[in-house]
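Cont'd.
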Amino acid sequence: MPGTATESKARVEVACCAPLDTVNMTSDQAEQAAAMFKALADPARIRIVNLLANAPDAACVCDITPHVELSQPTVSFHLKKLLTAGLVERTQRGKWAYYSIRPGVLSEIADALELKGTRT
Amino acid sequence: MPGTATESKARVEVACCAPLDTVNMTSDQAEQAAAMFKALADPARIRIVNLLANAPDAACVCDITPHVELSQPTVSFHLKKLLTAGLVERTQRGKWAYYSIRPGVLSEIADALELKGTRT
DNA sequence: TTGTCATATTGACAAATGTCGATGTGTCAT
DNA sequence: ATGACACATCGACATTTGTCAATATGACAA
């Protein structure tokens, strides 16, 4: 990194930029934020979240499946990803499993964003 | 899907949920949103974005690298991902490449989020 | 209890991703 | 021209991811 004139020999190099001393986020914070975004990093899961966010009530898998045009096991696979990421909730009623957006999730994502700087 | 009483035989089954007629997003919209989130779906890239968002000025690779504790080629790899996703900008000045957050990106991400429902 | 239905899990596999060392490319100073 | 430096690209590799058919699980009805 240029700009550190430590040697006795005249190191007059220009600095490439400011030292970047900003408070770093912890590895945990980074991993956690990345996990949130990873859960949304797939078109199928985006569709599911969109569906659930706009649905009047919780929705069962049999109604979600036709909207994403994937096999039922694959839809379950994506729902599990969303579930373990904490983006959706699951409740069993009868033989059906109902999924819904976990309340407050959207604002949490917004928080994750501000975590990386409020400027701009 | 239960609830569709089409047969002449009395199909008195209970419906599992409402028909979910909500306006679907297009495949393009889903893919585009997923691409945004995919760019953020990695701890290293989260750190980089955090760094750039909090930096007073644009930062060069040589200053970013030590903060993410990865090899220089790997950092370049991540920067390229962020670049092609449109999250950061690149300008060459002298022998250094300066990266900065593309202005307006954070609100665009927020928009992508609202795309999946304004309720909660 | 037996069957049916809705959902989850498993096993297999192709494709994408993250990582690094080695090397290429472009820019500046000498 | 030559060398040093900052960064990008390449080749190789292990890991993760998304997908499906087949099968297991769990709930209800008859």
